[in-house]
Amino acid sequence: MEIMISTALLGFLMAGLVSTFVFMLRSSVSLGNYADMNRDGTYFLERFGREIRMTSNVITAADNSFTIDVDSTSGTERITYSYLSSSGELVRVNNTTSSKKVMLDNISGIKIEYYNILGDLTTNINEVKSIQLRVDLTRNNMRDDNTDHIISARYNMRNRIITN
User: Fold this and answer.
1) Three-state secondary structure along 108-151?
2) Ramachandran angles phi, psi of 94, nearest 5°
3) What digits encode the pLDDT tens for the residues 11-66?
4) Which residues contact 160 (CB under 8 A, 6 or more apart)?
5) DSSP 30-67
6) Helix (H, G, I), strand (E, B) or coil at 100
7) pLDDT tens per residue, range 81-117
8) With 132 labelled, which of 51, 70, 86, 123 sits at a CA distance of 20 to 30 A?
9) Whole-model pTM?
10) SS3 of 163, please?
């Protein structure tokens, strides 16, 4: 009889330990996901903001991609940012050097907004003076999803001259 009671108590103790371990494991994975998304978002926003501020011309401006000319010390580079919905990636392509880099992945939604010099939304490519991105990132954590929302500042294209 004492063995049965000991076994039952040990079973309850083991069940508690296993559930605590699983909870801690899931929490650890979630923290890792949030840290990765934060790191990736910070790196992207730093690079993106620097390039937008140095933009001298907007070549294309669509709902899921845009192409800009970016002035640098080595000359003007043509850069394309594209959201690939099939893979959930935001890709940066340097058309001048033919290099391609995935800037963000695991994207569940993106919104690109273009603004004129007065700060109003615009669809006219000749009026675009600033841009803002809203990106939703999602990473899976066993049964749950971890999400992060990146909303960029509205970056002004300092080198872009608008004549209207």
Assistant:
1) EEEEEEEECCCCCECCCCCCCCEEEEEEEEEEEECCEEEEEEEE
2) -90, 105
3) 877 887 777 767 667 666 667 777 777 888 888 889 999 999 999 999 999 999 99
4) 55, 56, 57, 58, 128, 129
5) HHHHHHHHHHHHHHHHHHHHHHHHTEEEEEEE-SSEEE
6) strand
7) 999 999 999 999 999 889 999 999 888 899 999 999 9
8) 86
9) 0.78
10) coil
